[in-house]
Amino acid sequence: MTPQNRETAYLAGGCFWGMQDLLRGIPGVLETDVGYTGGWLENPRYDDTHDSKSGHAEAVRVVFDPERISFAQLLTDWFFKMHDPTTLNRQGNDMGTQYRSAIFYTSEAQKQVAEQVKQQVNLSGKWRRPVVTTLEPFKTWWVAEDYHQDYLVKHPNGYTCHYMRD
Fold this sequence. Notes:
This protein is an alpha+beta fold. It is built from 4 helices and 8 strands; from the N terminus they run E-H-E-E-H-E-E-E-H-E-E-H. The protein has a single domain (about 5-155), classed as Peptide methionine sulphoxide reductase MsrA (Peptide Methionine Sulfoxide Reductase, Chain A, 2-Layer Sandwich).
């Protein structure tokens, strides 16, 4: 597969375990891993992300084939349906800025698509409250510790607050 057939998205929507579990099964998604982005601390570890110590969000790096699934489809059909984008810094029982809903765009084109999709979701009437998903420029990716990678594959009955909403 050539680099032209690969695009990367960085998405945050609560605990990265559940998001990765759903994202990995999407047709056109080539690889996923979990990590931290959006903060100021270099080389953060899991404990650094809590209580806004680092500013980082738990996120998923999604490498996908844009000929099979577009960035807009990834957001519309999956990202905005797998978590509640109207809860500020929270998903389920998980609270704090590390659990914020965010799209870390890697280009002006991704930013424009994310703005359009967020506006469409807001206007759709699906959610009773406004979408609070932030659009943040992607800076640096810090891969999470090994025990977080593919967590729900290793622990099928592990905690998740993610599921597909209509």
